[in-house]
Amino acid sequence: MWRDRDILPGDEKRLQMIFIFLGANDARLPSKEDSSTLEEYQSNLHAIISLLRDPASEYYSPKTRILIITPPPIGELMIQSYTPTFAADPFVFNNRTRLFAEMAKQVAREANVPSIDLYSEIENRVREEQTTGTWVSRYDGYDNYLVDGIHLNNKGNMLLYNLILTTFKAVWPEMLPKSLPS
What we know:
Layout: H1 4-7, E1 17-20, H2 38-53, E2 65-69, H3 76-82, H4 94-111, E3 115-116, H5 118-132, H6 154-171
């Protein structure tokens, strides 16, 4: 469970941007310590946004730009490989993670903040690679974007970076460093 002191260390008035990129661990099935229900996840996302937007909050920072990033999909075969107890005690399922990604997008719409749908971006790319045969692996292609079935690898991080740049160009072009192509 997150705590505001973990996310906002004390100089939030100077924050220009905050990325809310939560959900991969929250989507673990409820038997795991760091999991959340979908309702708790929704409430937590709204609470984080309120910390910066609510004038009554000690963390009020109305000029801080907020970007929500959905959790990535789960490479279930990779999780099974890296976690030998997975078959006996499955704690992550991609369908559950999809629900958390949908909830992140819903909260972004409700709070009128931009979002990046990393879940769908990776899922679409994996499906395309599976269909065209451009990526063949024993992990259904998720290892092209994930290092262990849950965390982004170099290519996954580069995809996220490019999605963030695209969002900046569309929503906050003034935030782009001058040295980056526009």
